[in-house]
Amino acid sequence: MDLTFKLNTGFDIPLVGFGTYQIHGQQLIYDVLDYALGAGYRHIDTAIVYRNEEFIGQALKTLLPKYNLKREDIFITSKFMSQKNKEQKEVEEAIRESLAKLQTSYLDLYLIHWPGVSGLQVTDKENEKYRKAGWNALCQLKSDGLLRSIGVSNYMVEWHPYYYQPELLEFCREKSIFLQAYSSLGSSNTSELRSDETVVALAKRLNKSSAQVLLRWAVQQNIGILPKARSRAHVEENAALDFEIPEKDMLLLNNLRETVGHKFAWDPARVV
């Protein structure tokens, strides 16, 4: 896979990344990353709250040489969740701990995980204070060369045909902001989106799975995706996106917002 997007920092980010949310345990992390690197993934996404950074670091130490890769051949993203009473220096320490666990001297992308703050209600005005402390820490460590690019996560970027936001995409393109999808396949609690009759019919016509159609729909708009999977078959399937969805079918998927449209995840707009 060589689909990339040039960030406004000048670095290229692979559009297709491997998500590791809810994937735990040393052996399982090793196995899924083995499958992922073998399938061509070169972007690995994690976060402090996933509690798997250390296992990822250990796995990559073995797996990169296995695939004749160097650290600079892969793109690693992690995230920090702002916390009550955590000032800038404490955030910087937490990020440095991420680096140590991942056994790397730099991270390609580091994000504030959520606009709210752990330990505060979403309506608490102190959210802004600790969110700013987190952002200042990211800016400082980017200046120090430990973080190549920085950004935010879960800030209004749920993105799938049921929650298509062309206005957001236009804004991001105008501002040279990379848009990465959240909930590309809907919710893990329901197959509603993957079972949608329009999606299923299109998948059948293209001889692809519903998941592949939904992922390709995003990638075809230059939007990043982070599918996660545990089995080799699903890891490889999610990476096999070298096909085109005809424009008329892209429009059919876009129009699902009008006929079905709804969110699957939380609403970050509630956070002050």
From TrEMBL:
Source lineage: Eukaryota, Metazoa, Ecdysozoa, Arthropoda, Hexapoda
Protein family according to the UniProt entry: Belongs to the aldo/keto reductase family.
Taxonomic source organism: Anopheles albimanus (New world malaria mosquito)
Keywords: NADP, Oxidoreductase
Domain NADP-dependent oxidoreductase: 16-158
A GO MF label: oxidoreductase activity, acting on the CH-OH group of donors, NAD or NADP as acceptor
Protein name: NADP-dependent oxidoreductase domain-containing protein
Domain of life: Eukaryota
